[in-house]
Automatic annotation (TrEMBL):
Domain EamA span(s) in chain numbering: 10-144, 156-287
Superkingdom: Bacteria
Subcellular location: Cell membrane
Annotated transmembrane regions: 12-31, 43-61, 73-91, 103-122, 129-146, 152-168, 180-200, 212-233, 245-264, 270-291
InterPro entries named among the record's database cross-references: EamA_dom (IPR000620), EmrE-like (IPR037185), RarD (IPR004626)
Protein name according to UniProt: Chloramphenicol-sensitive protein RarD
Bilayer topology annotation: Multi-pass membrane protein
Amino acid sequence: MTEAARRQQGTVYGFLAYLLWGAFPLYFHLLRPAGPWEILAHRIVWTLLLCGLLLLLLRDVRWLGRLVRRPRRLGGVALAGALIATNWGIYTWAVLSGHVTEAALGYFLNPLVTVALGVVILGERLRRLQWTAVVIGTVAAVYLTFDYGAPPWVSLALAFSFATYSLLKNRLGVSLTPLQSLTGESLVILPVAVVILLWLDRTGGTTFGGHGALHTALLVSTGVATAVPLILFAAAASRVPLSTIGLLQFLTPFLQLLTGVLLLGEVVPATRWVGFAMVWVALVVLSVDMVRQVRRSRRTRRDLVHPAP
């Protein structure tokens, strides 16, 4: 396969991953009358079972023993699991309680928060356009705080939980494959899911098995719905440049925003669209910087390989 064909294939994988994530609001609405806690618990359980089955088929289980023997790495995986479960829980609650547009804003803000965390925690130095994007994003957050009458907690919680999760995954490096990582994270938070399901069963709050075969099948399908986009994303990330991934990621919140407004009937006041517009300007600036940096890096590598006479 040529490099061009490989990149084209990776772009398709990435597009499909973000398209599926963008459709999550409609998918979670299909899971009603299950509530956010029940959906979160089933998502953890069925994702773990699916990933475990795939690893057994691939005969790839020895890494678990190595992970257990390295407490520091195991702690990192456990923290990553807690962060992604928090993100899943907040997002599910937002969708089911009619805050899809706020959830979309959170994922629009995520790249800006990721850049800011890189400065604060990793001591990274930002380029001029990156600083410009962060400043515009901060102004947008302040503006939206005044518009809402309070900080947009749902958006900020989603942005910070996923940005911190991404930062932690960066620090953990490539010690685990995406499938291994998802399995480990699901495994360490499995006790939480079990406690939730037992509590719901005891209080009569569970819907699993009591609302028809289709509803039960949909809850079981949360494992596939979680794992498939992540696997597609991993396949894309290994085939296309980071700039392509960075641009594709805006597809998800854009689709979520459209879903909330056009299909789920959420109302966004005109003043709030101003805040969204500020965030989009910041993302455009960040995207321009990303593309310029990738081109500059390619040019540098090309000059090293083929120096001018």
